[in-house]
Amino acid sequence: MLIPWGGVGCCLSAAAMYLLGRSSGRDAEVLRSVARAGSMKDLAAILDSASKVLPLVVAVSGRVGSDTPLICQQSGMRGVIVEETAEQHFLKHNDAGSWIQDSAVMLSVSKEVPWYLDDGTGRVYVVGARAAAGLILTVASEVFEESGRTLVRGTLDYLQGLKMLGVKRTERVLPTGTSLTVVGEAIKDDVGTIRIQRPHKGPFYVSPKSIDQLIMNLGKWAKLYRFASMGFAAFGVFLLAKRALQRFLERKRRHELQKRVLHAAAQRQAREAEGGIDTSDKEPNSKKDQLVLDICVICLEQEYNAVFVP
Predict the structure, then answer these.
(1) pTM for the full model?
(2) In the structure, what pLDDT confidence band is assigned to residue 157 with cuts at 50, 70 and 90?
(3) Angle at 177 between CA 87 and CA 74, to 5 degrees
(4) Residue 30 in contact with residue 202, Cβ under 8 Å?
(5) According to DSSP H, which parts of 125-207 are helical?
(6) Superkingdom of the source (predicted)?
(7) Spatial distance between the Cα atoms of 125 and 69, rounded to a whole number of angstroms
(8) CA dist., res. 205 & res. 199, Å (int)
């Protein structure tokens, strides 16, 4: 029996969507339970009264700042996280002999300086923000530098099956002054500096959205995953049921044909055992029995008109 891979795939997709929906729902519930600090001053008071054993996961909002900001080379923007990439764009020969466009990363550099959130009442330093969920870097500049064309360079590229187009340089930055919401574990060192970092177990977000928007977004994704799971499950069950029904009907028709063949064979043996039956009366029945025995094994309805000889 052939496995209905379409139905199995839909059911597996439904299970995956269900798990993603549960995960998004759990993340939304965790964010609802996070302590919200109205200001950095309130966060300091919460840390002083909080338990020293259990980690304190909080949500704070403020504007990005740094004592030693980075300056982008191309755009001149000031930021605390800067990513620079350079991609070489070129044309190359494919197997069909035509030219297709492709690219390769030549350079990828990421820089980060110590930075904090400031809301006017205090500062909270953020550690390890690049590994947080929801971090979005602004495209500061995007420049395409065309490759210089010389006879020697063009000849070498042609012999290698390449045509150099140029280099695309991109700068992405987290600018100073950007309003962010950070959710993570808050700790306070001996000198009173407050930091937020990734907790050992729990959420870690650095996002321009507020915590209410994050919760709403996760709730929407959880609902979307649930609907997708129900759709894939229903379609998968339909495909499996259809295949099972086809298999059942095929077996039923095969069983009925087998009964008809056996019944016809039994009737022919009974007639052959009788000696007083006239040959002229026997010939039409013999043709009918032969027709029953010669039914096509594929459709189980029509007489076969071809055979396969190994």
Answers:
(1) 0.68
(2) low
(3) 30
(4) yes
(5) 151-159
(6) Eukaryota
(7) 14
(8) 11
Q: Which of 160, 210, 191, 171 is nearest to 38 (CA)?
A: 210
> What distance in Å separates the CA atoms of residue 37 and residue 219, rounded to the nearest whole number?
22
Taking the C-alpha atoms of residue 3 and residue 59, their distance in angstroms, rounded to an integer, is 50
Inter-CA distances, 36 with 33, 171, 186, 204, 245, Å = 9, 34, 12, 14, 57
CA 174/CA 140 separation, integer angstroms: 9
Give me the count of residues in the chain: 310
- The fraction of the chain above a pLDDT of 90, given in percent, is 29
Side chain identity at 134, as an amino acid letter? G
C-alpha 185/C-alpha 289 separation (Å) is: 85
Sign of the alpha-carbon dihedral angle for 75, 76, 79, 81: positive
pLDDT digits (tens, 9 = 90+) for 215-273: 999 899 999 999 999 999 999 999 889 888 888 888 888 888 888 878 777 777 787 78
- CA end-to-end span of the chain, whole Å? 23
pLDDT tier at 308, thresholds 50, 70, 90: low
- Closest by CA position to 293, among listed 266, 269, 267, 264: 264
pLDDT of residue 303: 64
Domain spans in the chain, listed from the N-terminal domain onward: 55-208
CB 91 within 8 A of CB 163: yes
CA separation for the pair 214, 64 (Å, rounded):
19
Q: How far is CA 43 from the centre of its chain?
A: 37
Helix (H, G, I), strand (E, B) or coil at 36: strand
